[in-house]
Amino acid sequence: MRPLLAFTPGEPAGVGPDLAVMMAQQDWNADIVAIADSELLTQRAMELGLPLTLIPYDGTRPKNPMLPGQLFIKHIPLSAPAVAGELNVANGQYVVETLSVASDGNLTGEFDAIVTGPVHKGIINEAGVAFSGHTEFFANKADRSDVVMMLATEGLRVALVTTHIPLAYVAKAITAERVEKIITILHDDLKQKFGEDEPNILVCGLNPHAGEGGHLGHEDEAIISPVIRKLQRGGMHVSGPYPADTLFQPKYLASASAVVAMYHDQGLPVLKYKGFGKAVNITLGLPYIRTSVDHGTALDMAGSPEINPGSCQLAIQTAIDMVNNSRL
Ligand SMILES: NC(=O)C1=CN([C@@H]2O[C@H](COP(=O)(O)OP(=O)(O)OC[C@H]3O[C@@H](n4cnc5c(N)ncnc54)[C@H](O)[C@@H]3O)[C@@H](O)[C@H]2O)C=CC1
Ligand SMILES: NCC(=O)COP(=O)(O)O
């Protein structure tokens, strides 16, 4: 059975609608249902000069596979016309609605996975919806308190203990319970979904030099170390906490299945420096498969043929592979 993916282009003024059109040009071993405004995609296809035939999705598995130039569409109307590059607060609720429809359809098993384009977190909040990111939104919809944001590129996977919270709150959010849950979800998914027989997980410290023996912060010794020792006693191949400024070098990474970073900007700049445009964002710990692009809304690129489709292609291919692996 061909995987059936829900694709949410995200912010209508950003590159997400362009990416939907660009992805439709390819021959995938899957069917893709864009959950979006159909006129928006048609308009963006015209701007890009690419062919696009939208096939209304009737809520059942397509009888005929989609062909290059085609895309299934579940129409969700915009609240206001979208102009490439110009955010409009009137469409904030529209973006959230597309994510809700995708989430509901995955929770019921209608779709096999969600692939998301980028959203603009600021404009959604300005529209009156408290929103910090897809990861937290989908976790909330699925009633999961702990999910893991993991970004992956060739030769490096980075998982985060905390995601979209202000830096000022990070230290308090690093609890033994949270660190243990994140490492455990990561470990189990590396085995079950990514074919790692015995994952080797390296954990960053929180403070400079992993706390320098307690002289530069206590969390590394008091919170992170005991969790790692406990998991080691349970047989897990996990080590750290390592100073984050020296951990990301080939000597250590060569044998690592994944690195656990304590916060967003500790791990993701390294990952994106290594593989921006060739990386995928995967949410672990959800009851369904969700992948996403490694970049944001790129408002300055919307409507441009210069958009790099690499991460979106990888997000779709990763979702397809994960669906197929889950059926083995
Ligand atoms: N998956 C998601 O929904 C994500 C959403 N965001 C959101 O995106 C918004 C803008 O964030 P920024 O920090 O400006 O990051 P950004 O990724 O949108 O842009 C950073 C730079 O990369 C370029 N760029 C990004 N994607 C590109 C592509 N596919 N092809 C060519 N160039 C590309 C942009 O033109 C810009 O110069 C924020 O509201 C942020 O929250 C950011 C990251 C991920
Ligand atoms: N920097 C990654 C990012 O912001 C994507 O987060 P999410 O929207 O996938 O939760």
Automatic annotation (TrEMBL):
<dbReference type="Pfam" id="PF04166">
    <property type="entry name" value="PdxA"/>
</dbReference>
<feature type="binding site">
    <location>
        <position position="164"/>
    </location>
    <ligand>
        <name>a divalent metal cation</name>
    </ligand>
</feature>
<keyword id="KW-0664">Pyridoxine biosynthesis</keyword>
<dbReference type="GO" id="GO:0051287">
    <property type="term" value="F:NAD binding"/>
</dbReference>
<keyword id="KW-0521">NADP</keyword>
<feature type="binding site">
    <location>
        <position position="281"/>
    </location>
    <ligand>
        <name>substrate</name>
    </ligand>
</feature>
<feature type="binding site">
    <location>
        <position position="264"/>
    </location>
    <ligand>
        <name>a divalent metal cation</name>
    </ligand>
</feature>
<keyword id="KW-0460">Magnesium</keyword>
<keyword id="KW-0520">NAD</keyword>
<feature type="binding site">
    <location>
        <position position="209"/>
    </location>
    <ligand>
        <name>a divalent metal cation</name>
    </ligand>
</feature>
<feature type="binding site">
    <location>
        <position position="290"/>
    </location>
    <ligand>
        <name>substrate</name>
    </ligand>
</feature>
<keyword id="KW-0862">Zinc</keyword>
<comment type="similarity">
    <text>Belongs to the PdxA family.</text>
</comment>
<dbReference type="GO" id="GO:0050570">
    <property type="term" value="F:4-hydroxythreonine-4-phosphate dehydrogenase activity"/>
</dbReference>
<feature type="binding site">
    <location>
        <position position="272"/>
    </location>
    <ligand>
        <name>substrate</name>
    </ligand>
</feature>
<comment type="pathway">
    <text>Cofactor biosynthesis; pyridoxine 5'-phosphate biosynthesis; pyridoxine 5'-phosphate from D-erythrose 4-phosphate: step 4/5.</text>
</comment>
<dbReference type="InterPro" id="IPR005255">
    <property type="entry name" value="PdxA_fam"/>
</dbReference>
<dbReference type="GO" id="GO:0008615">
    <property type="term" value="P:pyridoxine biosynthetic process"/>
</dbReference>
<keyword id="KW-0963">Cytoplasm</keyword>
<dbReference type="GO" id="GO:0050897">
    <property type="term" value="F:cobalt ion binding"/>
</dbReference>
<dbReference type="GO" id="GO:0042823">
    <property type="term" value="P:pyridoxal phosphate biosynthetic process"/>
</dbReference>
<dbReference type="GO" id="GO:0000287">
    <property type="term" value="F:magnesium ion binding"/>
</dbReference>
<protein>
    <recommendedName>
        <fullName>4-hydroxythreonine-4-phosphate dehydrogenase</fullName>
        <ecNumber>1.1.1.262</ecNumber>
    </recommendedName>
</protein>
<dbReference type="GO" id="GO:0005737">
    <property type="term" value="C:cytoplasm"/>
</dbReference>
<keyword id="KW-0560">Oxidoreductase</keyword>
<comment type="function">
    <text>Catalyzes the NAD(P)-dependent oxidation of 4-(phosphooxy)-L-threonine (HTP) into 2-amino-3-oxo-4-(phosphooxy)butyric acid which spontaneously decarboxylates to form 3-amino-2-oxopropyl phosphate (AHAP).</text>
</comment>
<dbReference type="InterPro" id="IPR037510">
    <property type="entry name" value="PdxA"/>
</dbReference>
<keyword id="KW-0170">Cobalt</keyword>
<feature type="binding site">
    <location>
        <position position="135"/>
    </location>
    <ligand>
        <name>substrate</name>
    </ligand>
</feature>
<keyword id="KW-0479">Metal-binding</keyword>
<dbReference type="GO" id="GO:0008270">
    <property type="term" value="F:zinc ion binding"/>
</dbReference>
<feature type="binding site">
    <location>
        <position position="134"/>
    </location>
    <ligand>
        <name>substrate</name>
    </ligand>
</feature>
<comment type="subunit">
    <text>Homodimer.</text>
</comment>
